Amino acid sequence: MKKKVLLIMPMSTLDFGKKNAGGVDSVCQEILKQIIKQNSQDFEYRILAFDPFSEVFYTGNPQQLAANVTVVTAPANEKICYIPLPGLISQIIRIQQQINDYNPDVVHSHVSPWLVAVNKRRHRIATLHAYKWICRQKVSILNDFLYVKVLPGISDFFTDEYTCVGNIIKQDLEKHTTKPIHTIENPINEVFFTKHHRPLSTSINLVTCSVITPRKRLDRVISLVSGLVARDIDVKLSIIGPTNNKSYYEKLINQIKECKLEHRITFLGRRDPFDIANIYQDSDLGIFLSEEETFGLAPLEMLASGLPVIATPVGILAEEKSFFSENGVYYYDDKAGIEPVINFINSYNNNHGKTPYSSLEKRFTPSSIVTLYENLYNYPQHLNQRKFKSP
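User: That's the sequence. What structure does it adopt?
Assistant: Structure tokens below.
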């Protein structure tokens, strides 16, 4: 008999890749797309997909996506019986309705507070993409108190084991729980695995991809471009990503004007994975100078596309620095100045050949990640950690 899994995810669309509300939404779309493709003979899935944009209505009726996969969509915020409820309350109500309807063996949530009130007759797994203040922006005093101080402890009571997308979360979580913790990284969309080698011309096309917020340190990227131009290097920068912080975006626009870089830097806005992959095809190097990441998917997508990357040591790039430093990544350091960056650019052809395409393809394809989750559903508490091996 197939094991029944209720998989709870934030997901803005079932037309995979066409839109997303951020990294977790995008990752969950990739996981679901692979589950449908894999058509497991061992598991039956019910997906409860909460739309972050609340553009759907909850009916409770499952839609068949594959022989072993059904989905129920629900808004992240809604009125129940004409009463507007806090988002988390309405979400927990919908989760309980689906548990009663579906009677799953495993309840796996990509937002840990969604497990609150799920009883221990089910095996309860929480996947953490952020934790407490790790990769969290301040929202309000009440919201921050609830999600940083209160809910992590309550959620832990209703969780049997955790998965984390990176060690930065795992190490902090270990201080606050005795439950088993496993590292399962995020998948890379297969559209990025398109090896190419663009001959480097006199004009260098840089590309970065992130939500426009202070934590992503795009001001640092612009300063680097300014420094390269000051050294007579003909460089252009494309910035992909939605604006989540208007005041920071305006600050970046002013910085660009002050540095006289208006004709060199372009904001491309939100793009779907297919567009991003095509933009990477027309770029020479990736750049990613974020302050903090739990995983850091964007630079891996650049590497998968064959781009050498200038990056800060965050997420998996920090955890496996020795591997990536030998495989197409230059670790940017403000104190080292501009010269090492210029040397890295000048050695473009050598660095291009070092991008770890095959290693990334083996480890981070959606099929590899879904297999790890399914191993956990079958064999709780027995998941081995994976590491790259340096050549």
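The radius of gyration is 22 Å.
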